[in-house]
Amino acid sequence: MGHGNGIKWYAHLELLGDGPAAAHACLAADPPRPPGSAAEFYDAAAQLGRRAQTLRDALGKLASIAATEGVWTGSAAESFRSVLRDAHRSHYDQVPQRYDGYAAALRAYAAALPGHQASIDSARADVQAALTAHQRVQLAASDHPYALALGTDRAGQLCQAASVRFRAAYNDWVDAVAQCERAIEKVDDDRLHNAHGAQVATDVIGGVAGELSSLTAVLAVLTLPFPVLSEALLVLSTASSLVALGADSTRRFAYGEDIDWRRLSLDALGAIPMIKPVEVGARAGRAAKEAGVLGRLGAGAKTFGRTFGHEVADAYVHGPARAVSNLKEAGFRGTFARPSLTRSMESLKGWEKQDLLQYPASWASDAYDHRRQGWAKAARSSAFRVTWQPLGPVVPAVRHGAARVGSAIAPALPDGRP
Amino acid sequence: MAATITVDIPTLRALAAQLADLAQLLDADNDDKTCIGTWVSDPRICTALKNIQHDWSHKRREIVGYLSSVGRAAGAAADAYGQTEQHIVKAAGG
Fold first, then answer.
1. DSSP state of B31
2. Which of A58, A63, A76, A71 is CA-nearest to residue B81?
3. For residue range B30-78, what is the model confidence (pLDDT) as tens digits?
4. Bridge partners of A7?
5. How do strand A2-4 and strand A7-9 relate by DSSP bridges?
6. Which residues of B touch A69 (CB under 8 A)?
7. At a CB cut-off of 8 Å and minimum separation 6, what does A162 contact?
8. Does residue B79 register a pLDDT over 80?
């Protein structure tokens, strides 16, 4: 057996030497004959086929329950349907096909196995017989050098011929195992396999950009009394939504992941300036209204936090509040002290649309430069390295302090710190 | 007049059990001791099957979780409908 990646693989048999040496090589082949039996492979294939059918039945039943909309109504029905997923869109319907694929590969191998075992057994017997004959000739003709030469030469030729036949039978079987293995691997062409390489990075980018977009949108709402900072955060939120839209579209169309149209629409909406902060603000306002607390921004944020849970509150409310406080301590008092529309308009003069396009490109480039950390880590940390760069052209007041802004904000973030 | 709704409680209960069993089987198919690779004695084909099973471990975990949760929901629905019917029968009888 050969070795590769810690896995023992079957290797083609090579005949080293002629006659008896070749025969010895054949008899030393490892494994000496194909392991297992056709019956066990057929049994395994049947079990896999049954598994596929059971899965198909179960998914079919769930689909029929999902399709009873209008017949089965009420909150119980709605609750039950809410946990059901579209088997096709989530690729669950490919699981039975996968098991059928395994079964087909094993069944094909099972059909060929008895033939390979018989050929190898027969060829081995011939090799053994030729080798025995060669040894007898050597013993019997030891007193007659001329006869020895003739006899051993003929016996050696027989050994060689038997060895060649054995090698052919053995290597046919090695090829059959490789073919079975390829058939099993071919099953992995479906949409079920784990993400790897660039797909992992895209998944992380989609997730981080989505988080960043929401976070900066909330920050933009919270900092409305300070237009300069709010505008900068608005630009970041918009840019992050663009990145999220790109990543989620790639996940949906290139990798076939289960990203629904609602999510893509939200990404797209978030990429339109002001939409996301308005949506987030409306959500916070609704939460505040439901709780009977209206008026002050702080109260709204507090209610928002309580409604969406402690963890979310820490991410979106307390964290940003700490960040704003850190910014003040970092010396950006002026930014908070003099909210002014005129100044806000001035601050946007230097801003150009290409800054938004530069942002995802910078992110990808930075992630590529740091890919040795692993794509996931590189993509995550690049988001935070690159995020605060657009602040430079957008907000003159913080142009030279982008790094300080980043370090002031970063400790308040709950996840994905640089 | 609204359409008649018939809830077949034994069928719902059987579905719950089937989904829970399936979730367990899919989980066991990747377990070291019971994975599908161990069903055959050829070490190379065993390794190929183990590797291929590992290659979709994320999605399988997701599906196992899905089948388990839907199974639990079906079981809870069967219990709830069963109790409702018993209450109605009791109320009508008493």
1. S
2. A76
3. 888 888 889 999 999 999 999 888 888 888 898 999 999 999 988 888 8
4. A4
5. antiparallel
6. none
7. A23, A26, A123, A126, A127, A129, A130
8. yes
Q: Which two tokens stand for residue B49?
A: 């099957």
* DSSP codes of every residue in A210-240: HHHHHHHHHHHHHTTTSHHHHHHHHHHHHHH
Sequence-distant (≥ 6) Cβ neighbours of residue A415 within 8 angstroms:
A211, A315
Task: List chain B residues with CB under 8 Å of A47.
Answer: 39
Contact criterion met (CB < 8 Å) for B48 and A181? yes
Q: Pull the structure tokens for residue A381.
A: 């940390």
The A residues from 73 to 132 touching B (CB cutoff 8 Å) are 76, 79-80, 83-85, 90-92, 95, 98, 102, 106, 109
Instruction: Classify burial at A396, counting beta carbons within 10 Å of its beta carbon; exposed 0-12, middle 13-18, buried 19 or more.
Output: middle
Q: What is the pLDDT of residues A154-203, one digit of tens each?
A: 888 899 999 999 999 999 999 999 999 999 988 877 777 777 656 666 67
Question: Which chain B residues have a beta carbon less than 8 Å from that of A80?
Answer: 73-74, 77
Query: Which H helix or E strand runs over A2?
Result: strand A2-4
Which pLDDT score is estimated for A166?
96
Say what the pLDDT of residue A354 is. 42
List b or e across A351-364, with b for residues whose CB sees 16 or more CB atoms inside 10 angstroms.
beeebbebbbebbb
ipTM of predicted complex? 0.86
Q: Which residues of chain A have pLDDT under 70?
A: 1-8, 69-73, 141-151, 196-202, 204, 224-225, 227, 249-418
- For A177, which residue in chain B has the nearest alpha carbon? B45
Distance from CA of A179 to the nearest CA of B (A): 10
CB contact under 8 A, A106 and B45: yes
Tokens for A7, please give them: 């896995």
